[in-house]
Amino acid sequence: MTAANFAASKPDRTRSRVRLRPTMSSDLEYVVSLERDPDNLAFITPWERTQHDAAIRFPDFRHFIVEGGEGLDAVGFLILIGCRSHDQSLELERMVIQTKGSGFGRAALRVAKKVAFDDLGAHRLWLDLKTRNTRAKALYDSEGFVVEGQLRDAVKVAGGFESLIVMSMLRPEFTGRRSLGLELPE
Ligand SMILES: CC(C)(COP(=O)(O)OP(=O)(O)OC[C@H]1O[C@@H](n2cnc3c(N)ncnc32)[C@H](O)[C@@H]1OP(=O)(O)O)[C@@H](O)C(=O)NCCC(=O)NCCS
């Protein structure tokens, strides 16, 4: 297994092998269209194409296309920010997977954790998600992220406001999970 590859171990998830590669300008149409898909729009705050374009160039950001399946086609994207953080506190800014429920999200998250802790020297990896995003919450819970608290009514949406749950994983928690075989090996 290489550093940026992961195949989920469940027997029915043998097709959920993923790898991350840096996003290129030519990928941005795909990225923006995924963000604007109504299946995703409810759970994220979409960026303009220019913001993604800046993000693929900005050294503090890592913008990745998630490739997966038999042909290693694009199946989604994810963004890490704070990669040069003095505090070694990185944020999984967003992750969007096109075909839900196929195991690509879990596989991509495992690779993202490995990149954050092994390659980018993170001490803390954090994220936030909308309180009604039960699918993402189940994924992050089961991948060892700890709830830090809520940002109440932090996001304005049609008809009102939504709260955000903040979750994180610290390096000792990551290494503890790795020693149990729950994370990708070094
Ligand atoms: C959240 C997201 C990235 C997860 O990726 P995915 O490929 O769909 O997730 P997986 O197939 O790897 O499933 C991971 C876990 O999510 C949970 N899950 C999946 N589908 C679910 C559903 N319909 N309802 C509740 N939980 C669900 C399960 O715990 C699942 O693990 P298990 O099947 O092994 O028990 C993806 O669904 C997505 O892009 N959603 C829209 C954008 C978004 O919410 N991004 C995250 C913002 S913080």
Number of helices: 6
CATH topology: Aminopeptidase
The overall pLDDT, averaged over residues, is 93
- Number of separate structural domains: 1
Low-pLDDT parts are 8-12
**Main β-sheet, in a few words?**
8 strands, mixed
As laid out across the biggest beta sheet, the strand order is: 1-2-3-4-5-6-8-7
Number of DSSP E strands: 8
Ligand kinds: coenzyme A
Structural class based on helices, strands and sheet pairing:
alpha+beta
Strand residues, percent = 25-35%
CATH architecture: 3-Layer(aba) Sandwich
Distance between the termini: 10 Å
- The CATH H-level superfamily is Gcn5-related N-acetyltransferase (GNAT)
CATH class: Alpha Beta
Specify the overall morphology: globular
Computed Rg = 16 Å
Q: Helical percent range?
A: 25-40%
Order of helices and strands: EEHHHEEEHEHEEH
In short:
29% of the residues lie in helices and 34% in strands. It is built from six helices and eight strands, in the order ββαααβββαβαββα. An eight-stranded mixed beta sheet has the order 1-2-3-4-5-6-8-7, with helices on both faces.
Give a written overview of the molecule.
The chain is α+β, with helices and mostly antiparallel strands and 186 residues long. The protein has one domain (5-179): Gcn5-related N-acetyltransferase (GNAT) (Aminopeptidase, 3-Layer(aba) Sandwich), CATH 3.40.630. Helices cover 29% and strands 34% of the residues. It has helices at 28-36, 38-41, 49-55, 104-119, 134-142, 171-179; strands at 5-6, 18-22, 61-68, 73-81, 89-97, 124-130, 146-157, 160-170. Strands 1-2-3-4-5-6-8-7 form an eight-stranded mixed beta sheet, with helices on both faces. Strand 4 (73-81) and strand 5 (89-97) form a beta hairpin. The longest helix has 16 residues, at 104-119. 30% of the residues are buried. The model is unreliable at 8-12 (pLDDT under 50). It binds coenzyme A.
